[in-house]
Amino acid sequence: MVEEYTQEEYWKLFNNLPEELKDTIVSTHTADTVRDICDKNEIEKTRTVAEIVGDVLLGVLEPKEELTNEIEKQLDISKDKAEKVKKEIVMFILHPVKESLENLYEIKIKSPKPDLDQGKGEEEHSKIGSDRYREPIE
């Protein structure tokens, strides 16, 4: 659970961040991405998701299992849906500032792997990226 901070404490945390994380927090791209993630996952509490992302970027919510739990609890959604939202947050918002976050938390962050379609078999997944319509070059 995220500890409660006063506005003054949040500003102190913010002022001590590396520039890259400060820029990400105030970026319109980050806000747009949060809104897109919420729209895609039919989540109405966009502000709550933005606050959770902000807590991660400020260094008060570790971007690992704790993040999934916080999303699930604050949005009152299933564990699976919370994990999906977390993956998208990590992929689109946190991954670009991965090195700064790893230094802030003194942890290693795994890069998320995009979900593959559930209906396709293993054989079909191995063909992704190949173009069956191109003629071979000889």
Give structural notes.
- With 138 residues, the chain is mainly α.
- The chain is 60% helix and 0% strand.
- The protein contains eight helices and no strands.
- The chain has helices spanning 7-15, 19-26, 28-40, 46-58, 65-75, 79-94, 98-105, 122-126.
- Helix 3 (28-40) packs antiparallel against helix 6.
- The radius of gyration is 18 Å and the shape is globular.
- The model is unreliable at 117-133 (pLDDT under 50).
Chain-wise SSE layout:
Layout: H1 7-15, H2 19-26, H3 28-40, H4 46-58, H5 65-75, H6 79-94, H7 98-105, H8 122-126
Helix pairs in contact: 2-4, 3-4, 3-6, 4-5, 5-6
Order of helical and strand elements: HHHHHHHH
| Class from secondary-structure proportions | mainly alpha
Number of strands: 0
Q: N-to-C terminal Cα separation, in Å?
A: 60 Å
Mean pLDDT across the residues is: 82
- Total number of helices: 8
Alpha carbon gyration radius: 18 Å
Shape: globular
- Percent strand equals under 5%
Which descriptors would you attach to this protein?
138 residues; 8 helices; 0% strand
Short description, anyone?
This protein is mainly alpha-helical.
